Amino acid sequence: FWAILGYFRDISGSPKLYDMAESFLWFVPGPHLRIPRLLGKMRSFIARRVRDNARTLDPSSPRDFIDAFLIQMEKEKDNPNTEFTLENLELTTLNLFFAGTETVSSTLRFGLLFLMRHPHVEEKVFQEISRVVGSGRAPALTDRPQMPFTEATIHEIQRCSDLLPMNVPHRLTRDADFRGYRIPKGMDVYPVLSSALNDPKSFKNPQNFDPGNFLDEQGQFQRNEAFMPFSAGKRLCLGEGLARMELFLFLTTILQRLRPQPLGPPEEVPTTPLESGFAKIPPRYELRMVPR
Ligand code: HEM
């Protein structure tokens, strides 16, 4: 976990130039020099898990992604062009692990900050949880359609967190023409998600944390095409559905039982990211979780 957090922080922090001038930066001192070491640590952790799984594998009853991949590797072992190799297994697991943990936990941490900064929003979410779910059972995904304000608040948390402002780089596989520009094959392109998420033409109140950005006049949830924290197009985030489920369940379950309370006045709760580069990292803060 610490390796993932450290890695995420380091690639988001000082080496903002990392993406643009990677080879040059390896000669410059700084925390980015830890990146290969942290990546190596995560990779050896996963290699260990793969070895454990291989040792205890029962092909008739796969336990997880690694087992399923190992079974497919065995099936394709005589195919010289197979993609099911040990290296691909380690790197794909690393990708899922890395892409699926820090993203959701950073969004939740940002979410608690925004809610403490705007206690009236937190109160309205709690009211909705009380009305739809009550206190006798845990929130379930089937509650989501009945909870437009909560849905809008989670969208607003994601919009304001702006977690991957420049998305991940995409490399052109062929020449492309875009709005009068020729973009050559091999060029790295950064689809800047931040500009869509903060677009004043698309959101009523883009500068502020305001769930109203996702509500219509009747207080019903309103989709918005500019909402693209998971990117857009064919390479859109593989984990979007999972992430949205996690954010809804974690946040509603926390707020059903506990009220996040700042140690000082709400307007002093920090919301400026600790790092803002590849990813935005929420600032560190202390809070009290007060039982309802
Ligand atoms: C709030 C949470 C999350 C955000 C904001 C987010 C955002 C993104 C973005 C912007 C991309 C790049 C898409 C592109 O290349 O255009 C991406 C890719 C990806 N995400 Fe997520 N993600 C989140 C959670 C997750 C979760 C929970 C998983 C599940 C394991 C996941 C797995 C992936 C994977 C595997 C890719 C690479 C897909 C590919 O290259 O084909 N993400 N994500």
Could you describe the 3D structure shown?
This protein is mostly helical. The chain has a single domain (2-291), classed as Cytochrome P450 (Cytochrome p450, Orthogonal Bundle), CATH 1.10.630.10. It is 45% helix and 8% strand. It has nine helices and eight strands. The strands form four sheets. It has a two-stranded antiparallel sheet. A two-stranded antiparallel ribbon has the order 2-3. Helix 3 (35-55) packs across helix 5 (86-117). It is globular, with a radius of gyration of 22 Å. The relative contact order is 0.14.
Bound molecules: protoporphyrin IX containing FE
At the fold tier of CATH, the topology name is: Cytochrome p450
Spatial gap, N to C terminus: 30 Å
CATH H-level superfamily: Cytochrome P450
Tell me roughly what share of residues is in helical segments. 40-55%
Largest sheet: 2 strands, antiparallel
The CATH class turns out to be: Mainly Alpha
Order of helices and strands: HHHHHHHEEEEHHEEEE
Global structural class: mainly alpha
The percent range for strand residues is: 5-15%
CATH architecture field: Orthogonal Bundle
What is this structure's SSE topology?
Elements lengths: L1 H11 L9 H4 L9 H21 L9 H11 L10 H32 L1 H14 L15 H14 L8 E2 L4 E3 L2 E3 L4 E2 L3 H5 L42 H18 E5 L12 E2 L3 E2 L5 E5 L1
Bound molecules: protoporphyrin IX containing FE (HEM).
The site of protoporphyrin IX containing FE has 21 residues, from α5 and α9.
